[in-house]
Amino acid sequence: MSFQYVIDNAENISISKRKRIAQTVSRAGVVKATSVGGQVYEFRVQLPTGPRWSDNRGLIETVEALDRTTVDNIQINKTAHNYISGYQGNLSSTSGITVSYSSGNTLTITGGATLGSGFRFKAGDFIQLGSSGSVYNIVEDVAFNDSSITVHRPVRETAGNYTLLVGQDVSWNVICVEMPTWTIFGYDQVSWSGGFVFVEAV
Fold this sequence. Notes:
Layout: H1 3-8, E1 12-16, E2 21-25, E3 31-35, E4 42-46, H2 53-66, E5 72-74, H3 82-85, E6 98-101, E7 106-109, E8 119-121, E9 126-129, E10 135-137, E11 142-143, E12 148-150, E13 160-166, E14 172-178, E15 182-185, E16 189-192, E17 196-200
C-alpha cells in the first residue's frame, strides 16, 4: 500500500507541475524570468484528523518504512477520485491508442478507436507513455478528426512509438520530500503535524 495509502485517504490534494523559474527585477521595476528546468509533478497531500489509530497503524508503518529516500509508485485511481483524473473524451475505449513522438511537446496519434464527432481527448486529461514512461497533461482539446496532441511539458522519452495509458490508469514514481509526524490523541485517534509532499522522481 505504501504511499498509495496517503493518496487514497487524502482529505485534500494539491498538484503542481509548473516550471521552475528564476526572476530578476531591474532598478526600473522590470521583471525578467527564465526557466531553469525541472518541470516535475509535485503532490501536496493532507490526511484527515481523527481516523482510528488501531485501524491505520500497519498502513502508517509501511509509509514510514519508505521514509524520504525510497521511490514509490502512486495513482489517482480511487473510484471517488474519478472527477480528478478520469478520462474526459468521447472514445468508447482508450485501450490500444498509440502515438509517435519525435521532439518537443507534441505527439501524433497513430492508432486506437476512431470517432465521428466529439473529442478524442480534452484539456486536463492525463496520459502516460507506456507503462513506465512519464505522465503528461493534455493542454488543448483534441477533436475527433485531429491526430495531434499537445502536452504541458517537453516529452522526456526518446523518439519512437508508444502505447498510451490514459486517465486513472497513469502512475507516477515519487519520492516523499516532506513527511509529517503522527500523534495519537483522545482515544485511538491519529492526527498529523502537516501534509505530505511527494515529488516526481526522474
